[in-house]
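name: query_chain
kind: protein
chains: 1
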Amino acid sequence: MDKTVTDTATGESYSLEHLKPFQVTYSIKVNGEPKDVTLHVHFSKHCYTRSRKEGDPDNAVLYREEKRRGDIDERVFCKARWEFSKSLPTVIRELHSKSCYPGGSKEMFYRHEGAPMSNPHHGWYICTRLGVNQKHKNLTMSVRSAHWRTNKPFGIRGGTKRFYALLAQFYASEQKKRD
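structure:
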């Protein structure tokens, strides 16, 4: 990941040093046995960009990416997401016993606790995906996005579970693949 991003609308540069990849170890239980599991955490550009909106100038587009159905998503700098992204490393390190929503494709969503009490679905949602890096034989967590929402994200499967339980489930399924 780059060390800075420039808001092309203002010309101002913003540091991305806080989004450097890091490792975090969580204690879980697998088949009743304690196990320390280390995840290699990395962050996507969606943690500090948003989709282009009508009225955003052409020069605001930082990059384009193809979505699953072939549509093109033009991404622009988002100062609100960038501000929130500064808290992401701490949030990830403290995720162990937090309640998360399971999603499909090994995704999970965490609603940051700073949400207003007036609507329990409002808040900053952090979308992550657990994976395995086959080349390096390690477990990964990709922080795919962090954004403010007024409703639950699409793709949530059921109620919340503690992060450590979701990680244990993922770890056990990956362990079976290797056995």
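note: The longest helix spans residues 163-178.
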